[in-house]
Structure prediction request, 218 residues.
Amino acid sequence: MTNPVILVVGAGPGVSASVARRFAREGYDVALLGRDRDPVETLAGELRARGVRVETRLADVTDVEAARESLTGLAQTFGRVDVLHFNPSAFREKDPLELEVDDLLADVALGVGALLTAVQATRPFLQDGGRVTVTGSMAADQPWHRAASLGVQKAGVRNLVHSLDATLRDDGIRAVSVTVRGTLSGDGPFTPDRVADALYDAATQDEQHWRTEIPYEG
Prediction:
């Protein structure tokens, strides 16, 4: 039998790296899609040193054609995707009077639209029992006005997760976002590793009582 596979979209340092490590500890092979070579290859090298099978691709996920090609290539390499994890978002420190419409649309394309690209590209490889997980944020409910586009992204991606779950659940595929209600830090309850634990728990929750949003309070 082949190992289950997690495909991490927006791979790099922080939560995405912790998610890759967490699932790898559970026996998953790991596919990484990121924009910048150094953090992707650093993470891949670390996982390979632990004996994990890892494949990587580089692409800007807002470039729909390039992202779709990379995602499809990763999925084809393994022949399956059991968990699709979506992590990207844009932090732009501009309040609503400074934020241009083009800025907002670009940020939403990254933090929300790219999830559509990822799910559509990997859908043929997601089978019964497949999961889509998303890193959410309290910015969806309590936006900081100085980063107005982030709240829009997090509210939008959470809403999209609800729709994805409703669309996919009849095929046994479920979607969930974990709303991180705190600020990421190097220690304490909101470390990337602790958030990754919450995302793993969300992905493996009882399907009979499935929730499409789970708050992580730390």
About this structure: Helices lie at 15-25, 37-49, 64-78, 101-122, 148-168, 192-203. The mean pLDDT is 97.
